[in-house]
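Box 3.1. Reading complex inputs
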Amino acid sequence: MLALNPQHASPDPAPPMLLSRYFLPILRETPKEAEILSHRLMLRAGMIRQEAAGIYAWLPLGFRVLQRVTQIVREEMDRAGAIELLMPTLQLADLWRETGRYDAYGPEMLRIKDRHERELLYGPTNEDMITEIFRAYVHSYKELPKILYHIQWKFRDEQRPRFGVMRGREFLMKDAYSFDIDEPAARRSYQRMFVAYLRIFDRMGLKAIPMRAETGPIGGDLSHEFIILAETGESGVYCDADILGLPIPDESIDYDGALEPIVKGWTRLYAATDDVHDPARFERETPPERRVRKRGIEVGQVFYFGDKYSKPMRALVTGPDGVERPVIGGSYGVGVSRLVGALIEANHDEAGIIWPDSVAPFVVGIANLKVGDAASDTASLKLYGALKKAGIDVLYDDLDERPGAKFARLDLIGLPYQVIVGPRGLAEDKVEVKTRRTGAREMMSIGEAIARFAA
RNA sequence: CGGAGUGUGGCGCAGCCCGGUUAGCGCACUAGUCUGGGGGACUAGGGGUCGCGGGUUCGAAUCCCGCCACUCCGACCA
């Protein structure tokens, strides 16, 4: 038996989630700098604090959402067979000189010197470093395929950061890199990630549409952007309405099985952002009633880039024929911190945020409408204790405030379910369960409320 | 990077043109009383290097110069 300290041995190490002890700095008025809706709501709901242009501190509520999103991404990457590691944020300039990208990248790259005048950079992406790691250890086709990923902060010194976390300079990104012996194998890896991405966004309740994309400075010849539809999106998107109804593979998906039909199904129909949009083709391939013209937010991108990095960096593997050749690669990014903003863009109303259950910072909020009233306090605590014990993420509003303020705050922070406890309901031994998304309210006993969530 | 702006208690703003009481208002905050199912009312309080530096002046939040930070519109990006 390990010698655990008492704290670690505690049966219930989770801290109490009483609002009176939590840190949730709600803003009643909207800070003037926030233009876009998700940015305003994140500031008002006390999720983030701007520390510099495009650089944010994640406050407890926002951090919880960020962690939820991170965890979904991680689970789906793992399911697809990718392997997590963690690379540093700082990289040596010399590494980037091997691929010529140190000069090619331009002012978006934050360049730093250490005390020895060594040139460093804050990584905007990690192809060079992962290739360096790969070449140090892998030399045979027998070790392939490999998909490695990490979830790490990136920095791109955007000319004009805006839209809060949707386009910050510092942002959290999941980036995965695939290594294969040849192009057909690399395309299989690409398909794995493609399908994993369908699942990632679906689990967050987002309709993400893969669209043919330019490859940009990363390079390569096969790429898709995953775009979610939202009125405030940065780019115009055009697609076939039938894409929106395509089924998403469930968690029993066999990543070693046939993935190509799935990918084909999703890429067969027309879908393009405005920079690659071909109006003539759109009209030729899509019947008028199925032509969707909307705005979208890019939340992920997958690239196949072949030997673009492995060749200059001499990341070589020996094939079954005994011949050494550059490993064939792809890279696959998800904007994790951007997703938090995108989720709000896709899930809100006049009163505030409406979190999908899967990413909600807390699933249930308990509002004690009359703190200090014995019946209300007892009922609220009973609910709180039972839900916590059942493993439900619950936030208990135990502040001595007026009901209106509590309702407004709970609506703003967007917890999927509210349990409203007050003298009026308790007179009949009931509490009210409100579903944030629909506004539906239902009176039920405390036992029924517990069963409802703890099921 | 081109263009346009803004910096005044935690937040939103007024004051600046035309220099001169103790820099003001709403919200928030503190104490108390009454309240209590959609951001309550009253009373009494606390809190400000007016972004930073220099200059003009008897006197600068206010005029002049320089710098910094931030925002918005456009071209570019997870």
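In summary: Residues 1-11 of chain A have pLDDT under 50 and may be disordered.
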